[in-house]
Amino acid sequence: MVKNHSLQKICVSMEVTELDIPESLSQKLLEKGIRDLNPPQVQAVEKGVLEGKSMIVSSPTASGKTLIATLAISKVLEAGKKAIYLVPLKALASEKYRDYKKLFGEDYKVSISIGDKDSSGSKLSSKDLIVMTVEKLDAVLRHNPTWIKDVDLVVEDEIHLLNSRSRGPTLEVTLTRLRELMNFQLLGLSATINNSDVMADWLDSVLVESDYRPVELKEGVYWDGKIEFFLNKKDVDIGSNNDSLFKRGTEKLEEERLEENLEKEVEEIKKENSKPTLDLFQDALERKKQTINFVNSRKSAEAEAEKVGKVCKKFLDRKEVKQLAELSEDLKEVLGSPTKQCKRLARCVKNGSAFHHAGLTSKQRSMVEEAFRKDLIKSVSATPTLAAGVSMPAYRIIIRDLKRYTDSGLNFIPVLEYKQMAGRAGRPEHHSEGQAVSVAKNQGMRKEIRDRYILGEPENIYSKLAVEPVLRMHTLSLIATGFVENFEQLKSFFAETFYAYQYGDIGEIENKLMVISEKLEDYDFIHILENNSFKPTRLGRRIAELYIDPETAYHFIDCMEAERGSPTSLSLLNMLCQTVEMKPLLRVKNKEISDLEDIIGREEKQFFKRPPDPWDPSYESFLESFKTAIMLQSWIEEVEEDGMMEKFGVTPGGIRAKVNNADWLLYSLEELSNLKGWEEMREDIRKLRTRIKHGIREELVKLVRFKQIGRVRARRLYNNGVRTSSDIRETGFTKLKKLIGRKTAKKLKEQVGQENVFDKENIMDYF
C-alpha cells in the first residue's frame, strides 16, 4: 500500500482574531500577514493547545509548527508562568532567541541559556521565556533549581531526535525527569515522526498529525537533462494473493499499479555544464532562485562549492560583486590568521557560493547563513547536518549523494534523513513551491530513488537509552540530586522512559543499573546502605554537577593519585584525551605509528599511567588519544592552524570542538583538585586551561587576560616588547594601533587606566 501524501485541504476556517490569545500578539501576527490558521494549526487549537493540553505535532517543514508553539507560549506568559523552548543545536537556539526577543521582548523577559554546564541557572529565575539546548537544561536540573516549578510549558523542537544515538538518551531522560518533577504542558514538534502515535501515547499527549504544506513540495529525480517529479501518490491496493496474481508475479503487478496511479511532471534542464548538479543550479539561478546542495562529506561540499562558484559568478550584478567581496574578506579574517580552508571559503563566497559543514567555525557558519537569507550567496553546498539546522530559504534542494560511508561500507542514508533534507525546499515567506531533486548516478537508480525515498516512509523512532556511558551519567545525577533514593526508585524511574514504553521490559537496563550503582560505590561517588538505599558523597554530587562521565572523573582521580609522572602539559593533555568526552579521536595512519612511538618513548616517564603494550587490544585507542593530545599540544605551542590542518587532518571547526571539550575537562579537573586537595597541581591546571582556551605558549598567559587580546594579537604585542601592564601604559598609542588596530588599542589603554590618555603624536587617531 502506498500512502496518500496529497496536500490536505483546509476544511475549517479560523482567524487569528478569534483566538483566545493576548491582543498584542494578535496585532503582531496580523502585521506579519498571518490572518488565518492553516490545517495543523487549526487542529492544534481545536485539540486544546491553548487550554494547556500536551501535544505532539508531526507535520512537514514550513507548515507552521513554530506558530503553534508561539500561541501556547503566549498563553503561559500571559498567566504569569514560565515557558522553556528546547532545541538540539546552539545555532538554532540563537535563531529562536532572536525571533522571540523581537516578538515578546517588549512585554516579557526572554533569555537564552546554552553555555556553562556547571550552572544552577539562578539568573533564569526572573526570566519568562528561556531558550535552551536539551543538554543545558539537563545540566541545570542537576543543581535542583527552585524556579523549575514555575515552568508551565516545555516546547521540544525536533523531538524526533529521540532516535539519535548521541542526543536521544539525554532528551529521553530529561523529558522523563521533567514529567516526574512537575505538572506542565509539553509540546513536541517534528517534521518526520512515522510512529508519532507511539510517542504521543508515551508522553500522554494529544496527537496532531498532518501532511499539509503551505508551499507545495515537488520531489523528483534528475537524469540526463530531465527532472521527473512525482506529484500525486494515490493509494494503490495490490489485492490478495491468488493464482492469477502469482502467475503474473506480485512484484510486476505492484509496479504496474504504481505506475498507473502516479502523476508525473517532467522538466527539461539545459545541459550546459560538466556536472548534473551545476546544470540544476544554473537552471535555478536563471529563475532567480537559490539552492542548497547536499553531499556526503566535507571535502565534497568544498569541491562542489568551488565548481558552483564558477557558474554563479557569471550571473552576479555589480552591487552583489562588491558586497560579496567585502563578505569574502570578513570571512577570511574570522580566525585572525586565515587557514587554507578560510581562504577557500572566501574564494567561493566571492563568486556567490559557499560550503557549510562542522569544520567551519560557528561564526563562519552563521555569516554564510545570514548572507544566504539576504540572497547574497546563491548556493550553499552542505553536509546533511544543515538539514536539521536553521531556516534557509532555498527554492531547490539538490541531493547529490544518497549514500555515505559507514562501518559496513557505502550504504543508503535513512529515509528520515532524506525527508529532512527534502523538507528544506520552499518557504512560505519566499516561495510558492519548493523542489527537492535527487540526482541519479545511473538510469537504473531512478526507480530506486523513487521507491525508497520519494514514496518511502521515514523509519520508526526507537529509544537509544540502553547505552552504558549515558546510563552512568544519568544514574549518578538521579542519585546525587536526591531524585531517587534507592534501587527500586531507580528502576521505577527508568520504567517510565520511552525505552520501557516501547520494549515493555527493562531487564537489560536493570542489569546495567545494578553494575553501574556498584561501580559508583567502588569509586566513592555514592554509598549503598544496608536497606539498599543510596547516599551520594560530596564528591559524587560535584561530579554530577560538572556534567562529566563518572568514568572520566574516576580516571582523573586514578591518574592524579597514581604517584607516577608529573603534570607536564602533554601528560595532562594525554590524560584528557583518554576520556569519552574527547571522542571521536584522531585516527592514526600506519605511517604515523613509528613517529608516535618515538615520542611516547621520550615522554613515557611523565605519563600518569604506563602505556598499554603494543599487543594489548587497547593500544590502538591509546595511540589515537596520544595523537589527539599531540594536536592539542601543537595548539598551545602556537602552531599555525594551516600547519595543524595539514599535519593532523583537522579543520578550524574541529580544532575548536576539541579545544572546547578540553577546556571543560580542565575546569572539571580543577574543581576535583579543590575537593581532593591537589594543591600542588592546581596552578598547572589553571595555566594549561588558559593556554588551551587561547592557543598560546606560557609567556602569553598574562597578556590574554586583557579583553579582545587573543593568540594572534598577544603574540604580536609580546614580540614587539609589549608584555606587561606597565609596557602597555608606556607604549605610545600610534605604535599600539599599528600592532593591534585602533579600536583594540583604545580598549587596551582603557583597561590599564588610561581612559583619558592619548598619543600626542596623532591626537585624532585616538578618537
Provide a quick synopsis of the model.
This protein has 767 residues and is of the alpha/beta class. The protein has 33 helices and 19 strands.
Strand order of the largest sheet: 10-9-8-17-14-11-13-12
Regarding CATH, which class of the largest domain? Answer: Alpha Beta
- Biggest β-sheet description: 8 strands, mixed
Question: What class would the helix/strand composition place it in?
Answer: alpha/beta
Count of separate DSSP helical elements: 33
CATH superfamily of the largest domain: P-loop containing nucleotide triphosphate hydrolases
> What is the number of E strands?
19
Counting structural domains, the number is 5
Strand content: 5-15%
In CATH terms, what is the architecture of the largest domain? 3-Layer(aba) Sandwich
Distance between the termini: 73 Å
Uncertain stretches of 5 or more adjacent residues: 1-10, 234-248, 763-767
Mean pLDDT: 88
Form type: globular
Q: What is the CATH fold-level name of the largest domain? A: Rossmann fold
State Rg: 29 Å
The residue fraction in helices comes out at 40-55%
Q: How are the elements arranged and paired?
A:
Blueprint: H1 23-31, H2 39-46, E1 55-58, H3 65-78, E2 82-87, H4 90-104, E3 110-113, E4 129-133, H5 134-141, E5 151-157, H6 168-181, E6 185-190, H7 196-202, E7 206-209, E8 216-223, E9 226-233, H8 243-248, H9 250-261, E10 262-268, H10 276-286, E11 291-294, H11 298-312, H12 318-332, H13 340-350, E12 353-356, H14 362-373, E13 379-382, E14 396-399, E15 403-406, E16 409-412, H15 415-422, E17 433-439, H16 445-454, H17 468-480, H18 487-494, H19 498-503, H20 507-522, E18 526-528, E19 534-536, H21 538-546, H22 550-560, H23 569-576, H24 590-603, H25 619-636, H26 641-648, H27 652-676, H28 679-694, H29 711-719, H30 725-730, H31 733-740, H32 742-751, H33 763-766
Helix pairs in contact: 10-11, 11-13, 12-13, 17-20, 17-21, 18-20, 21-27, 23-25, 27-28, 31-32
